[in-house]
Amino acid sequence: MQVSDTNTERAGGTAGVRRLRADQARRIADILRHQIHAGTLGDTLPSEQQLATEHDTSRNTIRDALALLRDEGLIDRAPRVGTRVAARKYDHGLDALLGLQETLEGRGTVRNEVRAGQLITAPPTVARRLGVAPGEQVVYLERLRYLGEQPLSLDLTYLAPEIGVRVLDHDLAHTDVFVLLEQLSGRSLGSADLTVEAIPADRHTAATLDVPDGAPLLMLERLTRLDDGTPVDLEYVRMRGDRITLRGSLSRGIPEWKVL
User: Mind listing the pLDDT tens digit for each residue in 84-115?
Assistant: First the structure.
């Protein structure tokens, strides 16, 4: 069933239930967004009529869904050209402890603009999380990270002092800190505590990452330890939400009440 000029549509397969066209458009946009990121649609999307038939909806609803994706910067639309993918995001896995260069291996050259690399007095929270004495110095790094010529993230990193001062002697423009930590410590990285939230880009960060003021960023906070449990790296990473997708695989453990 198709409705071309109303603001409600029948939900697919549910007799007697009608939903706002905006709800339907949002649902379809979610499906199309996934297909774009997965590369299953190619560089050009099917026509409005083909999409309307596939999703059992009206062309007006498809137009609304495509408008949502256009506003996200994922697609471009032009007369006689159709709808094309404007930009694809890069996957950043959440189920492996990898640096950006390791994560994007094979996607292009990752380089770092090192904006700061110095010893500073650790703020109390940083000292506590890195397990150093109050007032002790730690190494502070600030790097703007690029894939090719495109800025992807702004990384603010605090390193435990003993290993951090040795990191400063190495090529931070072309080498992941994670790689250096393992090389210099002689140990593998073991685990990390991770928090991810969405934040708007402040004016300075927006200019640095080449995004509009207030653009959505992925804020990743991560405390990384060596395999013996020693905390070595606390970082706050602002990632461009229009270029990076966080992705992982999860499994459901057995709840305690079921074990009992």
Answer: 988 777 878 777 888 787 877 777 788 999 99
In terms of Cβ atoms closer than 10 Å to its own Cβ (0-12, 13-18, 19+), residue 14 is exposed
Under a CB-based contact definition with an 8 Å cutoff, are residues 111 and 118 in contact? Answer: no
Q: Which of 159, 163, 170 is nearest to 112 (CA)?
A: 170
92-96 contacts: CB < 8 A, separation 24 or more? 92/239, 92/244, 92/245, 92/246, 92/247, 93/246, 93/247, 93/248, 94/194, 94/196, 94/246, 94/247, 94/248, 95/248, 95/249, 95/250
Query: Does residue 79 have a pLDDT over 90?
Result: no
Residue 193, SS3 per DSSP: strand
Scan for tokens 């109390």, then name that residue. Answer: 124
Runs of H (alpha helix) within the chain? 21-38, 48-54, 59-71, 100-103, 124-130, 161-167, 177-185, 203-209, 256-259
Per the DSSP assignment, residues forming a β-bridge with 141 are 117, 157
137-147: strand order across its sheet: 110-121, 137-147, 150-159, 231-240, 216-226, 189-200
Amino acid 14: pLDDT: 46
pLDDT of residue 146: 94
Residue 10 has pLDDT above 60, yes or no: no
